[in-house]
Amino acid sequence: MKKTVLVGVTGCVAIYKACEIVRGLQKAGLRAKVVMTEHATEFVNPALFRALTREPVAVGLFDDAPGDPIHHISLSKEADLFVIAPCTANVIGKIANGIADDLLTTTAMATTAPLVIAPAMNVNMYESAANQENMATLKRRGVRFIDSESGYLACGDVGKGRLADPDVIVSEIVEMIGVKRDLEGKRVLVTTGPTIEPIDPVRFISNPSSGKTGFALAEAARERGAEVCLVAGPVALDDLPDVETVRVKTALEMLDAVSRRFDGSDIAVFSAAVSDFRPKDPSASKLKKDACDSRLSSIELVENPDILATMGARKHAGQLVVGFAAETEDVVENARKKLVKKNADAIVGNLVGDGKGFGTDDNEAVIVTHDDVVRIPLMSKRELADAILDWARSNQA
Ligand code: C5P
Prior knowledge:
Helices cover 35% and strands 25% of the residues. By secondary structure, the protein is an alpha/beta fold. It starts with a strand and ends with a helix.
């Protein structure tokens, strides 16, 4: 479950930077939900934040929130952290003095989540006795400030009051909320989905792999800071933001895409369900059942290259290669054999069939390595992805 950061947006010129803050939080794997003051909506229409977050944007204390009669309470409970950025002198003053006359300030008073304020205002307002006292009061009460920077201000003055850099705001929030960024600087390559091997233009050999495991791995790796490339066979899943997604159809295309990117990767996870064989001689035109075409009743197959084994043989020092073994029985035994045969560093084994594995949202697995067997209890594919990356992180030099 993603952690939720409630982003309070108030009416000031620096509001355009709130968009970057929202995007940065999302990139770091957090759910961002926006609450705006009325003044903020004079600068930016809530539709922009609604589109960025794909969540309703709350503004008025008495607006109708579907299924939610006491909106400020539900918002305040949903938040794992409430950041107000940019925060005006007015809103700082209200919160410091217990004034809760709109949705944002009411939510700030109602929440028990950590409250973080990033002020943005004119230098004289920033340095005014009222603002300084209000900020000191809030600091005493445990509110965290991500302080303004000095510089050129929107009004033309130069001095302190400029909103902190959005990257700084995001990284402080990420640190406070405890999201792992342990794959920063690492390149992760993931294969996923099935491959399809054409018999003719309308028929093919394939399998029911949904690609969910690989997409979960790619998303988890990106959220932990990695640069991720996902090579996906035909699946019904949308591209992930900030993940290079290469769509392929056949095993040969997958091999080509992987081969171009493998050497530059630090961690390569092969979760695709690659077809072991392909029709030797796919027909360029549709084969006719009525004509009893023998190429339909008996399809000659040739073996596909084993992508994992090919890359396993090519891996360089410091590179970690993880494969998968979907088995109907003897998972650990079979995973061990694949570990050796494919020169992998780990094989994630899981049982398939009987409604397990393919297409489901959760999975139970074992991570089999050359000297260990780590059992992963039933968990979501996203949690499994994190467990695999935890293993990879702790086993990489
Ligand atoms: O031998 P088996 O197909 O069971 O091995 C599964 C593992 O090998 C998975 O990690 C799968 O992605 C990979 N594989 C591959 N290329 C193939 C067959 C399997 O990369 N042609």
